[in-house]
Amino acid sequence: MIAHSPSAPFPKLSPEEYLQWEERQREKHEYFDGQIYAMGGGSKNHSVISVRLSTLFCNHLDGGDCEIGNSDLKIQIVNTQNYTCPDVSVTCDPRDRKSTQFITYPCLVVEVLSPSTEAYDRGGKFRLYAHNPMLQDYLLVSSTSVEIDLYHKNDDGDWLILNYQASDRLELKSIGLSFAVDVIYRGLAF
Description:
190 residues; alpha+beta; 3-stranded mixed sheet; single chain; tt1808, chain A
């Protein structure tokens, strides 16, 4: 058994050890090149936004072949042994049904931004996801203002960044869904 105290660094683990260890943890951790990184808790807005997006996706995709995951569902970064914990993910790829611990081929990944993770979500984490041939949409949703950035991969394989704000309508081509931005932020205080 691997023990960890808050003051000690996480031990370096193999991917298999990480997945076994992570199943027994209360908190979520991402895994990158043998290192474990604790994922902090989110704000009330963060939680509400994640639930609303998950519900929206579930209602839209109900009865189909796609699966929607919350932050408990890890993504294995394609062609690596690294794992992330996005706030919401959608996969429609049958290869992802083989694992009970993670998916590898999402078509949509959502990160609800926190001040402490925003730079990583926009930079390093996007670069990890961008190499996935199945990923079409990467949605970055602010939890401190009404603003959403959609990174959409076009037919040429180029990533376009589209910004949405209050009263805009957002389209996720990856799952064939269009919705009003205001639906996600209704009643939230900033």
